[in-house]
Amino acid sequence: MHYLKPIAGLILILFLFSFSSAEKNNSSDNNHPEKAVIPAEVHSILKKSCFDCHSDEAKKILSKSKLNFDKLDGLSEVKKISTLKKIEKEIKEEKMPPKKYVQKNPEKKMTEEEKTMVFEWIKTELESK
């Protein structure tokens, strides 16, 4: 029974440490990148036109290693800004989705209205940085 006090003390220390770590992880200081808020309509567009290649579920490793929308929130602020700008550029230049992909999957092509919505979301995200 004399060993219960040290064990209880250890459990208390571990509990307090885990609570302290959770508080640090939930803090919103400037060292942590802000979460990108993707509106439902924009998310739907990205899911339709981008997620087949650029999400955790994508089968092509190269495509999702270049851009993975599921990892966007984990990027540093600088990397997130450059990624958002690159997404905008690729869509404007009609490089994404790729022409061959759209030929095989015409329903994946973004309409002009959808592009505008994505661009507005990117603009909002960039202005918040």
Secondary structure tally, helices: 6
Please provide the ordered H/E string of secondary-structure elements: HHHHHH
Beta-strand portion reads under 5%
Instruction: Please give the number of β-strands.
Output: 0
- Tell me, rounded to a whole number, the average pLDDT: 82
Q: Please describe the biggest sheet, giving its number of strands, its sense, and whether it closes into a barrel.
A: none
Distance between the termini: 57 Å
Q: Give helix % range.
A: 55-70%
Uncertain ranges: 19-33
Shape: globular
- Radius of gyration over alpha carbons? 21 Å
Broad structural category: mainly alpha
Can I get a quick summary?
By secondary structure, the chain is an all-alpha fold. The chain is built from 6 helices and no strands.
